[in-house]
Design brief:
The chain has 286 residues and is α+β, with helices and mostly antiparallel strands. 44% of the residues lie in helices and 13% in strands. The chain is elongated, with a radius of gyration of 22 Å. The chain starts with 23 loop residues before the first helix and ends in a 10-residue tail after the last helix.
C-alpha cells in the first residue's frame, strides 16, 4: 500500500531562540513563530484580539491574567519543558503562579490514554486526533480493514487518506456516499482549526488524491453537526459483505482525541464478528 504525496510536517518553523528568552512576551513570540502562526491566528485561537497579542509580545502589556496566559499556552500547544519555561516567565512577570489543579489535568497525554483504551477494546477500534490522523489501531480493526502493518508504519495515517486510497475504496459500498459523509463530518469537526499550518498542509495533500477535490468542493459541512453514529457497508476478502455501525467516544472536556469503534449493523455481521471473537465489549471505557 502506498501513499504518494500524503506526507507533511507539523508546521514548525526553524526559529532562533529569542534574545528575551526569560521574558514572557518574548517567549510567546518565539513559540508562535515556531508554530508558524501569525499574531492574528494566535489571537483567534486564544480568543483574544490581535492588538492584545502584539502588546504582550512587545512588552507593552505587563499584567496578563493567568486565565489569558493559559488560553495562549493551549493555543500554542506547548507541553513539558516548554510549558514550564513559559510558566516561570509568567511568574517572573506577574508574581503569580500559572499552573493550577485543572492545568495539571491538561498535561495528561491524551494520545497515550486513547491508545491504551483502543488496545483494550474487543470490537474493532482506532483513535483519531483533531485532524483525523489515526494515532492507534487495535488488532481487530487491522483485521477488519485488512491493513498491512508494515505499510502503516511508513504511510500517512489520516483517515480520509485511507478512505480515498485507490487500493481500499473498492471495499466500501457505495464508496462515494461514505466519502461524502466523512468529508462533511470532517469539515464540521475541523471548522475552528482551519487556520493551523498543519491543517492547510493536510488539505493540500488530500486534494491530490483521486476524486478528493471533486467531492470536497461539492460537500458542505452539516449546520447541525455530524450524527453520533451511522451505518455503512464494506466487503471483506474472507468474511464477505459486512454492515458496520460507527460509534464515537469523546473525552469529557478534551476534544483533541476521539475513539471510533465499529460494531455490527445487522445480524449477519454480528454472527461474523462472533466468529472472530469481536462480539463482547471489554471492561475498559472512556
Amino acid at each position: 500500500m502506498t501513499r504518494g504525496g500524503i506526507g507533511y510536517g507539523a508546521g514548525a518553523r526553524d526559529v532562533s531562540v529569542p534574545r528575551r528568552q526569560d521574558e514572557f512576551g518574548g517567549l510567546i513570540a518565539f513559540y508562535r513563530q515556531r508554530r508558524g502562526l501569525s499574531q492574528g491566528q494566535l489571537a483567534h485561537a486564544a480568543r483574544l484580539s490581535r492588538t492584545y497579542i502584539y502588546h504582550l509580545e512587545t512588552g507593552q502589556r505587563q499584567a496578563p491574567s493567568a486565565r489569558v496566559a493559559r488560553s495562549i499556552l493551549r493555543a500554542l500547544e506547548v507541553h513539558g519543558d516548554d510549558r514550564r519555561r513559559l510558566a516561570g516567565a509568567f511568574a517572573q512577570l506577574t508574581g503569580l503562579p500559572l499552573e493550577d489543579e485543572a492545568e495539571e489535568l491538561d498535561l495528561l497525554d491524551q494520545r497515550e490514554l486513547a491508545s491504551l483504551l483502543v488496545h483494550n477494546m474487543a470490537f474493532p477500534a482506532h483513535s483519531l486526533d483533531r485532524l483525523w490522523n489515526v494515532s492507534a489501531w487495535n488488532d481487530p480493526a487491522m483485521r477488519l480493514f485488512e491493513l498491512d502493518p508494515e505499510a502503516l508504519g511508513t504511510h500517512h495515517r489520516n483517515l480520509l487518506a485511507v478512505v480515498f486510497d485507490t487500493a481500499y475504496r473498492a471495499r466500501f459500498r457505495p464508496w462515494e456516499t461514505l466519502a461524502r459523509r466523512l468529508l462533511a463530518d470532517f469539515k464540521h469537526n475541523t471548522r475552528s482549526v482551519t487556520y493551523l499550518p498543519e491543517y492547510r498542509d493536510l488539505w493540500r495533500s488530500l486534494r491530490t488524491l483521486p476524486d478528493f477535490r471533486r467531492i470536497a468542493d461539492s460537500s458542505d459541512a452539516s449546520a447541525t453537526g455530524p450524527a453520533p453514529s451511522f451505518i455503512f457497508q464494506m466487503r471483506h476478502s474472507r468474511l464477505g459483505p459486512l454492515s458496520l455501525r460507527t460509534t464515537v467516544t469523546v473525552f469529557s472536556g478534551a476534544s483533541d482525541y476521539s475513539i471510533v469503534t465499529y460494531v455490527p449493523g445487522d445480524q449477519q455481521t454480528l454472527a461474523m464478528f462472533a466468529t472472530q471473537g469481536w462480539q463482547a465489549w471489554s471492561n475498559t471505557s472512556a
